[in-house]
Amino acid sequence: ASALNISSPSASCSFRPAGMELRSRKKAPKSTTASLNDTKAALSSQDGHNPTQPLPLLSQLGLLIKLGRPKFLFYSLACHLVGVFVAQAQGQPIDWVNVILLQLTIWLTHLMTHYVNDYGDYEADMLNENAGSWTGGSKVLRTGQIQRGTALLMGLCLMLLAIVAGASCVIRFAILHADVTLPSVWTVDSLFIFLLAVLQGVPWTFVLFGLSTFFVAWAYSLPPLRLSANALGEICVSYVLTFTTPVVGCLLQQGQLDFDFIILLVPLFLMNLNRMIIMNIPDREGDDRADKVTSVVLIGEVKAVQLNNLIYLWIYCLLLPQLPLSTAVRLAYYVPLPMRFWQSLRINVPDWWHNRSLTDSIPFVESLYILVSVCCLNMGLVLQNQQAVQDWLTH
Predict the structure, then answer these.
(1) Structural contact between residues 154 and 67, judged by C-beta atoms closer than 8 angstroms
(2) Is 135 helix (H, G, I), strand (E, B) or coil?
(3) Are residues 169 and 109 in contact, defined by beta-carbon separation less than 8 angstroms?
(4) Cβ neighbours of residue 182 closer than 8 Å, sequence gap 6 or more
(5) pLDDT at 268
(6) Read out DSSP for 137-197?
(7) Using one digit for the tens of pLDDT, what is the confidence trace for 35-92?
(8) Which of 12, 24, 34, 275 could form a disulfide with 226 if both were Cys (CB 3.0 to 4.6 A apart)?
(9) How many CB atoms lie within 10 A of CB 341?
(10) Contacts of 149 (CB under 8 A, 6+ apart)
(11) Quick check: 50 and 44 in contact, CB under 8 A?
């Protein structure tokens, strides 16, 4: 999904396409800094809170929770289950303890990403006057009621918890599938021998994909790469959410990352890529002012809508009919098509990004459409695995 100010996003690298001015990132322009201060003062005034006065504990807790944007956690759960059901289709029984442990790891990582993103996107979010309820970050840091560094600190704490939870997944896997046993007496020597045995039984493909998720989550928002500000944000989100999340879910169930699995994820990856493009449309002006280069900043709102139309026409008219998918999975992808048609009509309303009600509802429906699509895909996989499910229930 911002008291440790180790680096400022205004010092991150970014690029501009040909014909656009390349501006120095070493120091924010005075006009931008003044605009940030004016925005914060105005928001604090509207909220009725004096930032110099401490908030009640419950209010601080509520803001910290809001800062993490937990409403997006359903997406990672649904994508994780795709990998679990694919592993079941490959003949692996579902280990629900591993599902719970991995989901805890995924949610901690997902929340970490949101906190770090609010820290990294502070400047762009402060300058964004057009953000809807589902775009422009959590908007908590805009009021000054929570210090920016708190977001980074929360991200660091969640990363440590996610590493511990992920390590528990790896250790349990090694114990169950690599004949690793717990020491009867814990000493320094027995601990060393145990860890060595775990390393020998580690599912390294699972670990590498997990580490890549951590890398992308931090590089997405923070210097020196700051991928979200260098036109790679949409690809990064789609990679983590609709590719690595199902993949690690499958691998921890002893499933295989084969060609059929990758093909099954291709439409989902492209759909989420489109979602991120739509989500960035209302934020274009604020992102542009803060030198945050997204795909929409590169091509503009109108061409972004046209690109969305072309990608969905290709997915539903050409890609899905030709992919080697099972009947249940193919139909599952087509079930949300009426919702997609209605949403596409709304997206093609001229200048909808300047209409407050549509700026709120279109990104929400676009996100909901992805969640519905993933849930339908899970239902298709369950129907495909019906015999396996019946066997599991009878035992």
Answers:
(1) yes
(2) coil
(3) no
(4) 175, 194
(5) 97
(6) S--SGGGTSS-HHHHHHHHHHHHHHHHHHHHHHHHHHHHHHS-----SS--HHHHHHHHHH
(7) 555 555 555 544 555 555 677 888 889 999 999 999 999 999 999 999 999 999 999 9
(8) 12
(9) 11
(10) 2, 3, 4, 5, 119
(11) yes
